[in-house]
Write a structure and sequence with these properties.
- This is ATPase.
- By secondary structure, the protein is α/β, with parallel strands linked by helices.
- The protein contains 12 helices and 9 strands.
Length: 300
């Protein structure tokens, strides 16, 4: 190993779990990446067993990448930023897990994303990926908005864009809505010929399946398809309003992260875009900062 670790000076692993994937990164004391691994989704709203499995697998892959043994997880202090743990019952389920780490500290993916985006400083962040949510932390005040999960919220997210595209395509195919090239794109995407084919591929599926359609919606909107443009504009208007609510406590920095942060930016209101700052570090490093703080407080 390239680092020396002791119980007083352990290695930290930051884990960022969301609706599509779980990324784990082991960091040195100087924030250098030692090893990283990516596994499937880790949102306890969609199943605890899947969440634990993804955390474990991403950790094992990170250890392997670092040239360490799987059993070395018992020497790591973990910081977990997970979607869904804003629900108290799910937070408790995660905290009570017989985890493989020396210590484990849990908070929301929003919190760790914000810490990472501003490299430990105060600020605001909006996540626009499979889901959507916003968080700001300034002078001990914090605002947490959205993050209620697919079907109940997540407006402007990848899953929401995909859902709206499917709804409009099915209405078009049934003769209740205007023509849209979204219909042809979705039929081609699923390799089917009719409405039932789309339904068969989407009914009862997870948010991550819907989120895969987001790029199609944005592509059609950029091709001037009016139906797709209306969907994207509605989602972007919500994200813009979400940002303004975060601005109410005057965050010194504001960033957007997630798979849709860049492609959605041109559709946001100008007053929001002018306040955008680049993210300084990934959510996994934010999770590590959180764990270091909690571990240091425990030690003192």
């Amino acid at each position: 190993m390239i680092v020396n670790q002791t119980k007083e000076n352990p290695l930290f692993i930051g884990i960022d779990g969301g609706g599509s994937k779980c990324r784990a990164t082991i960091y040195s004391a100087e924030d250098g990446v030692i090893g990283t691994g990516v596994a499937g989704r880790a949102n306890p709203l969609h199943g605890l067993s899947q969440t634990f499995e993804s955390i474990q697998l991403s950790t094992e892959l990170a250890l392997k990448d670092a040239g360490m043994a799987i059993g070395d997880s018992k020497d790591l202090v973990a910081g977990l930023g997970l979607a869904g743990v804003n629900v108290p019952r799910l937070y408790q389920d995660i905290v009570n897990w017989e985890h493989p780490f020396a210590d484990m500290y849990v908070t929301s993916d929003l919190h760790t994303a914000c810490i990472g985006a501003h490299k430990g400083g105060e600020g605001a962040v909006i996540i626009t990926g499979t889901g959507s949510c916003g968080y700001a932390n300034v002078d001990g005040k914090f605002i947490s908005l959205g993050g209620h999960g697919f079907a109940l919220g997540d407006k402007g997210s990848g899953a929401w864009l995909g859902l709206k595209a499917a709804e409009q395509s099915l209405l078009h195919l049934d003769g209740f809505a205007e023509r849209t090239i979204l219909t042809e794109k979705l039929l081609n995407h699923f390799k089917v010929n009719d409405a039932l084919g789309i339904v068969e591929n989407l009914a009862g599926k997870s948010s991550s399946v819907y989120a895969k359609l987001a790029r199609i919606v944005l592509e059609c909107a950029n091709q001037q398809d009016e139906v797709a443009q209306a969907i994207v504009k509605e989602g972007a208007a919500y994200i813009s309003e979400l940002a303004r609510k975060l601005f109410e406590i005057n965050p010194p920095r504001f960033s957007m992260i997630g798979g849709l942060a860049e492609p959605l930016a041109p559709w946001l209101d100008k007053d929001v875009v002018t306040k955008l700052s680049p993210t300084l570090a990934p959510p996994e490093l934010g999770a590590t900062y959180f764990a270091r703080q909690q571990f240091g407080g425990k030690a003192s």
